[in-house]
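Quick review question:
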């Protein structure tokens, strides 16, 4: 072994790797880790309706795949055992070193009974996507609630948008799917009772929307200022703050957004479509844009599912499959 004069001493490299491992175990670069496992464990009941919606979506897909490459699978807190059981083999790739331990607890028994082989690798699946695709040329690829988290990890809007836009290009010729956050923000819990507003979606009356986002277009008008109160004028907008953290924004930049949305078969301009999503969950205040609206090609049929993450905080998840 030869050491370059500028190489750090081996004990430093080892220490750096150990710290990296520990950091990923604790918070997975702000996208998961022990903090995610703890929240998910405590919220199992509250998240069940969204988990059921994800399961319905996954089980409604018909395809002949035997292998699955599951990216950001973590412990699979929101994942369907019944869907996983349809595969002969699954490779889970996640940066969280403890993910496989919890995955075994949640899905190990079910996968044993379906004789599904599974393995885990701790890798940066987004950086190594081309290599992973070569290693598993026949696998269906599924991004499991990971793409909407990249804004927390990379903290650079342009970089995140470029990374997420590129994924479908890298996956050309492959069958793949994703479920990810598109928008999230505060909701007015007090009013979220169906007896007050029958059109409201609540955890006990969870409804999903079919949705297609149109081509992106640059809107030269200034962004509307954020507002608080009745939720009707809540605005999704981008930024890297976590749930509930305030963000300062001058709102003077140009806004890039889909030129239309088709929600439940009805074509709307983006702002009207966004208001439908926000009002459906009684949104209030400022919402966060997870910069993931270009993950799928324009007009890809998808399903939008509300995820009542906390009693006063909701996410809209988008799920779609692309078969090639
Ligand atoms: C919100 S959690 C996913 C939850 C998981 N789907 C579940 O149901 O429990 C996001 C996961 O993505 C992983 N992750 C984030 N960026 C990643 C990357 N570049 N490569 C691999 N895994 C990543 C995190 O470690 C975390 O486990």
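Suggested answer, residue by residue:
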């Amino acid at each position: 072994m030869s050491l370059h004069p500028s190489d750090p001493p081996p004990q430093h490299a080892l220490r750096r790797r150990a710290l990296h491992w520990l950091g990923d175990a604790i918070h997975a670069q702000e996208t998961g880790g022990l903090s995610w496992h703890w929240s998910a464990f405590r919220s199992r009941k509250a998240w069940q309706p969204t988990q059921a919606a994800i399961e319905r979506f996954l089980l409604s897909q018909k395809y002949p795949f035997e292998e699955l490459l599951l990216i950001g699978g973590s412990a699979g807190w929101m994942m369907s055992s019944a869907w996983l059981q349809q595969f002969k083999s699954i490779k889970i790739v996640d940066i969280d070193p403890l993910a496989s331990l919890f995955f075994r607890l949640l899905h190990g028994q079910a996968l044993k009974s379906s004789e599904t082989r599974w393995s885990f690798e701790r890798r940066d699946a987004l950086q190594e996507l081309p290599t992973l695709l070569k290693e598993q040329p026949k696998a269906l690829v599924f991004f499991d609630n990971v793409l909407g988290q990249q804004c927390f990890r990379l903290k650079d809007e342009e970089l995140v948008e470029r990374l997420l836009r590129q994924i479908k290009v890298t996956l050309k010729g492959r069958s793949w799917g994703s479920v990810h956050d598109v928008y999230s923000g505060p909701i007015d819990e007090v009013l979220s009772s169906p007896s007050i507003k029958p059109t409201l979606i609540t955890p006990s009356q969870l409804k999903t929307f079919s949705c297609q986002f149109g081509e992106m277009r640059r809107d030269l008008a200034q962004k509307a200022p954020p507002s608080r109160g009745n939720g009707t004028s809540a605005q999704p907008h981008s930024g890297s703050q976590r749930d509930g953290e305030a963000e300062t924004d001058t709102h003077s930049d140009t806004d890039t957004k889909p030129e239309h949305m088709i929600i439940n078969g009805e074509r709307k301009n983006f702002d009207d479509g966004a208001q439908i999503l926000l009002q459906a969950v009684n949104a209030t205040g400022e919402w966060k844009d997870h910069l993931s609206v270009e993950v799928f090609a324009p007009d890809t049929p998808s399903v939008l599912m509300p995820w009542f993450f906390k009693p006063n905080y909701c996410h809209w998840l988008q799920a779609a499959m692309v078969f090639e």
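Why it works: The CA atoms of residues 62 and 323 lie 10 Å apart. The mean pLDDT is 87.
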